[in-house]
Design the sequence.
């Protein structure tokens, strides 16, 4: 596109010398006096799309006099999504066939708007000027006599028509998209809380190796003052101590002999006996004998 | 309470608790194997439960909807005007510029910002792209292998969910382009059928961001090479 | 659709969309005066609509609840065990503090918390003990008859099962653990059998779907307290 920009000077000249047909051509405003700009009308329609809504009123035609508040024009400018949109507007407003645009007329009208913007020193996006240049170029090419027979020469408007059509369909697609029922406007997500206490976490898997490695590090840390103490009892004794306690739980007095499983043999009896001694030593259980040679009972120490 | 009814109740509770679309798979996963009392429902069971729910909601304030992310329960449109008053803010409105950009990404994905600007005839503001990315309606799915390596944008599942679509195929059909006499018939004006582009775009979003989509030319771009 | 029904629908939609309890006042405020089609409902209308909703939910997956903040729709308790699985998540691994505590209970049982702390040199958090009790790897087997009557912890049958041990004697001795060669690789320790751990998990929830699983991890990552 950049190769077309040099033409923009030429365009400005054309526009400056041309007649402001674009505005006068609009029958709705022709002949009307000072403030016909705010035409009350119904909701926006495709054919008479307002430039803008100013103070609640649709602005259907471009103001003719230059004393209109610049705000209105800024809104007007914001109303168009770019030069293609403005061109489409001009074409639709006059019920022209997009496939056969009277390029000279449209160019003049387009330039009117552009000049107006420039006069008001509104910040005009560069794309508007690029389009102005393009229009001028097409216009000049249309004026040139075309060799009728050569078919490779395309209509100078072809490219513009394609772009206009392409833009138009996505303009429509955007409208369609906007009309789709969507969240936050037409539908709302719903949410119902779950009664408390039902969330659960899946407990992590643990490998025994992790436990042992943790113990190893702990031992390395605690070795200085605990190692001999930890090591002197065998694990079976420890296990037996726990089993004795479990046996005694909630039982009150348990006959001493019930703590021994004879089928375990001598080793088993010894381990149980050591476990009982350990538990007595650690003030966890106590032995009770009501009189000499009476059966010995064991019970958990309850601390009164 | 029959077993069928129970399943429906659980499905209803889950959909309402989730507050987001749930797939059939997620719904099925709620029924662990060990529940001997209630054998894990089949796909058909779940679909039947959903159909029953849909029927139940016939004259309620809510409805069951199927979107790209699965099934969800939503407030019925008829109730929206009142429900909207729950919040002080008005529902967000989106500018034409944003909607046009979004439409171009939706119908022409994957597409670069430059290509969007080409069709719209104006620059796409950074804010628009930022908003679309922030809403997670679009995402960058790759880069076109041309100078500058411009980002390629595509729509997301969130976009479909937001607009209540199951897939891109459900987008409104693009208007046709008329071929003017003076342009002849041989011009490459035919758009790829939206269904076709939709399904290929669906594939894209499925393939994930790790693998950028195959870069294809996004169809007749008028005036891209003056 | 009768007017009463409409009001009920709107109330339902609003309660579900709000995601928080709504008071009668808030519900009434949704009906602006200008709605000629639907005169603003009275308090009685609203209460009637809520009562009707409550009745509708009799055999549904949700229920109407009146809480301090007003009315809300919540998932029926009976559905909660399934619905809660939507958020089931695996927590991060257990802390070293928990593993050390478990090892000390295994090797030094019966042992009090004070004794564990003495060896570890730091306090044992309540959460760690709670977690170990909840997993049923340890239990209280008695109390030492000293001031404070501290609980004595020992490992359980489940502990042995989980780690694939027939008895504690199969654990390596401390001397073995302390040896420089000990890497954990040459131990006759099988990985915890996934089937075994699966069945133990099954035990937890074996009480049937109607009642929530008895053992719940109630939050509180081990070691979160100093």
Sequence:
């Amino acid at each position: 596109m950049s190769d077309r920009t040099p033409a923009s000077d030429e365009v400005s000249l054309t526009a400056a010398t041309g007649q402001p047909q674009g505005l006068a051509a609009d029958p709705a405003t022709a002949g009307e006096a000072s403030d016909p700009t705010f035409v009350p009308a119904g909701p926006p329609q495709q054919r008479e799309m307002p430039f803008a809504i100013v103070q609640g009123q649709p602005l259907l035609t471009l103001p003719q006099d230059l004393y209109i508040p610049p705000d209105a024009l800024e809104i007007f400018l914001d109303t168009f999504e770019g030069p293609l949109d403005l061109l489409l507007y001009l074409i639709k407003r006059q019920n022209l066939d997009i496939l056969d645009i009277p390029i000279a007329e449209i160019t003049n009208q387009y330039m009117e708007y552009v000049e107006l913007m420039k006069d008001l020193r509104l910040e005009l996006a560069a794309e508007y000027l690029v389009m102005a240049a393009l229009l001028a170029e097409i216009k000049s090419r249309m004026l040139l006599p075309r060799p009728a027979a050569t078919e490779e020469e395309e209509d100078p408007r072809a490219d513009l028509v394609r772009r206009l059509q392409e833009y138009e369909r996505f303009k429509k697609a955007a409208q369609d998209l906007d009309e789709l029922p969507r969240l936050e406007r037409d539908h709302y997500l719903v949410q119902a809380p779950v009664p408390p206490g039902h969330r659960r976490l899946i407990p992590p898997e643990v490998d025994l190796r992790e436990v042992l490695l943790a113990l190893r590090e702990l031992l390395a840390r605690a070795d200085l003052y605990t190692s001999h103490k930890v090591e002197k009892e065998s694990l079976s004794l420890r296990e037996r101590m726990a089993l004795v306690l479990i046996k005694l739980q909630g039982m009150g007095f348990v006959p001493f002999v019930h703590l021994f499983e004879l089928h375990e043999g001598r080793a088993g009896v010894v381990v149980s006996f050591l476990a009982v001694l350990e538990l007595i030593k650690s003030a966890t259980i106590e032995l009770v004998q009501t009189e000499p040679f009476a059966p010995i009972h064991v019970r958990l120490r309850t601390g009164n | 309470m029959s077993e069928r009814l129970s399943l429906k109740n659980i499905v209803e509770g889950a959909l309402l608790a989730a507050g987001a679309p749930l797939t059939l798979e997620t719904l099925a996963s709620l029924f662990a194997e060990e529940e001997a009392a209630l054998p894990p429902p089949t796909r058909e069971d779940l679909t039947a439960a959903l159909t029953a729910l849909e029927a139940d909601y016939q004259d309620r304030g809510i409805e069951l909807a199927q979107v790209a992310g699965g099934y969800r329960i939503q407030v019925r449109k008829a109730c929206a005007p009142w429900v909207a008053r729950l919040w002080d803010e008005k529902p967000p409105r989106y500018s034409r510029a944003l909607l046009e950009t979004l439409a171009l990404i939706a119908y022409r994905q994957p597409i670069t910002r430059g290509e969007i600007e080409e069709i719209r005839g104006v620059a796409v503001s950074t804010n628009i792209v930022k908003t679309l990315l922030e809403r997670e309606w679009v995402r960058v799915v790759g880069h076109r292998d041309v100078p500058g390596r411009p980002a390629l944008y595509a729509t997301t599942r969130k976009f479909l969910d937001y607009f209540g679509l199951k897939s891109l195929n459900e987008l409104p059909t693009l208007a046709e382009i008329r071929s003017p006499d003076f342009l002849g018939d041989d011009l490459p004006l035919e758009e790829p059928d939206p269904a076709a582009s939709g399904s290929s775009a669906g594939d894209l979003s499925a393939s994930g961001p790790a693998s950028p989509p195959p870069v294809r030319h996004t169809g007749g771009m008028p005036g891209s090479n003056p």
Observations:
- Chain C touches chain A through 75 residues (CB under 8 Å).
- Residues 1-5, 186-226 of chain C have pLDDT under 50 and may be disordered.
- The CA atoms of residues 49 and 211 of chain C lie 32 Å apart.
